[in-house]
Sequence to fold (341 residues):
Amino acid sequence: MNTLIAPAPGYSKITLLREIYYGFRPNKPNFTPDDYPDLTGKTAIVTGCNTGIGKHSLELLYQKNCNVIGIVRSQSKGDEARDDIVNNNPESKGTITIVSGCDYMDLSKIPAVGLKIKEVLGTKALNIIIHNAGLMAPNNEGTSFQGYEAMFQTNVLGPQLLQHFIDPLFLKNDDTSLKRIVWVSSGAHLLAFNTYGINWEDPLFENSPTKERPNNNVLYGQSKAANIYQAKAWYEENKNICEEIGCVSVSCYPGNLKTDLQRGWGFSMTLAKYLMWDGVYGAYSELYGALSPTLKPQDSGAYIVPFGEIHDPREDIKLGLTNGVAIKLWEFVESKISPYF
Fold:
């Protein structure tokens, strides 16, 4: 895994600092619920939707009469979020169905989730997928059931494995008026390794003692760089059918937000929250990717930033989208998740 397609170029520290600043002081959203189309008869999947940005995205979709399949770990927490949203939006003609058991820390649990999604979806067309669930750990010690670094497994391996089971349900010439995938990334990709964002020697740190891992910000940044690659690589892997059905696949940095993603970060995050935005703004970013009529299949691989604009990712990662690095990362992940197909 350590042979790169081309040496990674450097990147501008000035640009990096400007993008970090933009995350705290982004432009105002220009695509908000008043601009969203009626979604009657449409079906969406949102992962990690019992709290935070995912719950906001689920609610905004439901308000537009969408049928939403919410993917969570805990049935009780998912049911609580669903009931809260339904009770607050009695005028909606949509539905919310909760599918639980999606614990990305154990890949062996994901095939059953894929089967449940198939059963719930039935003969309905699937229009939107938002890979929102994620982990931003307060330290570098997390290790999955499979023995992999926790954030890479949760943020990268898990969503790609779930997508494997969703693809046959999604890549169909049924309701082609709307076909979108949003892979949730982060401005933290700016902090990732300087080799196209990935530690190619051992991305999962399966061969490294915990004490030899880099700090948690670098590990989180690596997983978020991978999400940017996934948006492009998934499209390239399925380009023919995507062009036929008009599918768009993008990555999205929702914003610097006050959500449960920072749970366990302590006093430093309490202070930082004064600089952050309410979680609903992150949903505006995600739903720009999911619903904006300005996005076309040729925009696949675009990196959406707060609160609904397209910027370039870090220079080396931008190059990685077109020189084969994205596909290399995709194929590496496939090799790790294929035992669970």
Summary: Residues 13-335 form a domain with the Rossmann fold fold (CATH 3.40.50.720).
